[in-house]
Write a structure and sequence with these properties.
Layout: H1 16-23, E1 28-32, E2 38-39, E3 54-58, E4 62-71, E5 85-92, E6 97-102, E7 115-122, E8 128-134
Antiparallel strand pairs: 1-2, 1-3, 4-5, 4-7, 5-6, 7-8
């Protein structure tokens, strides 16, 4: 990558399981063992009931675009060669939202409510990120 290098996530004890699953091409989210609500991003305490008990579940990897923005001017040199790109808030079928990039799509064709599915890209040997692409009709 030319210019500044892209910032990479740093796995920590709260997120290590998530990043390992991404490396294995699986999207996982947490489910509270007390109130049974799903949550994303990984946290030690449930934001709904404050329980510290949870399990990891494999998400469907499918959802819809809740909101998006097409970025035409990179705010960071690391993204200069990637504009335009689509930054989206995706609501998974499990009813949690996650910020990600929509790939393999023309920015003019993206719509709120459009169905998408997760795809994974290796950025380094250690870090794999989830991205989303539109689900083709049919």
């Amino acid at each position: 990558m030319s210019g500044e290098e892209r910032s990479l996530p740093i796995p920590d004890p709260e997120t290590i399981a998530y990043w390992k699953a991404c490396k294995d091409r699986k999207l996982i989210i947490q489910k509270c063992a007390h109130c049974h609500k799903f949550r994303f991003y990984p946290q030690n305490v449930c934001p709904f009931c404050e329980s510290n008990r949870f399990t990891w579940i494999e998400a469907s990897g499918r959802g819809q675009i809740f909101s998006f923005s097409v970025i035409y001017r990179a705010a960071n040199k690391a993204f200069a060669n990637h504009v335009p790109y689509i930054l989206a808030l995706v609501e998974l079928d499990e009813r949690v939202r996650m910020m990600s990039q929509i790939i393999e799509a023309n920015p003019d064709s993206i719509k709120i409510g459009q169905r998408v599915e997760v795809v994974f890209k290796d950025l380094t040997e250690e870090i794999t990120l989830p991205f989303f692409k539109p689900i083709s009709a049919g």
